[in-house]
Amino acid sequence: MSVLRNLESKLAGLVEGTFGRVFRTEVRPVELARGLAREMDDHRSSRPVPHAYIVHLSPDDHARYTETGDEVREDLAGYLLEHARAERFSLAATPVILLDCDPRLGLGEFGVEALPAGSAPAPPVSRPPAPIRRDPRPPRGVLAVAGRRFAITEAGALIGRSRDCEVVLDDANVSRHHARIAFDAGAGWTIEDLGSTNGVRVNGERIHGPAALRTGDRLDIGTLSASFEDA
Description:
This protein is α+β, with helices and mostly antiparallel strands. The protein has helices spanning about 5-15, 30-40, 60-65, 70-85; strands spanning about 50-55, 95-100, 110-115, 140-145, 150-155, 155-160, 165-170, 180-185, 190-195, 200, 205, 210, 220, 225-230. The chain is rod-shaped.
């Protein structure tokens, strides 16, 4: 049998399951292995026999087998290597199996094609999976005040005496809604006085609008001392 025979006639002669089944089902790996072995046997007169083969599959079967990655191809290549040893065939290289999607084939049909010597691709190289890129750690601040430490998320925090604040300070010199800490990806952390009676100071300076916050800044919220950390 010529190695260079036409692919159309090859597929017609090697399609499996078309006449052997009443109902077409998925191609099983053992059927692929037998088909590959028969194709190698057809080239027993070659020295060496071909070591690279293409398995033509229907779109559904191809999708199912490609989900397994290299596992099926490696198993089939291993089976073919053992078959060559058992039959005392000469191989130029370790068997290589390629899977091809052929829309002309129906579910359960497949074809096997030996590639001519010199045209076989190199065995696929297994590569480790690409590292998963994780999102940067979300910003987090810590406000230490009145003996407590309050975690501040990137959503910010309202500071005051009211119970609807994220940072509740039960002190008569603190207004109900005294100040707000906010985060902006461009500007970073800021604190703003919300029109409180006793004001907000950053490192001793009273603020009259949004002021930048950095690790180690000392704050005065009313008469309470506080410190900020960018965690």
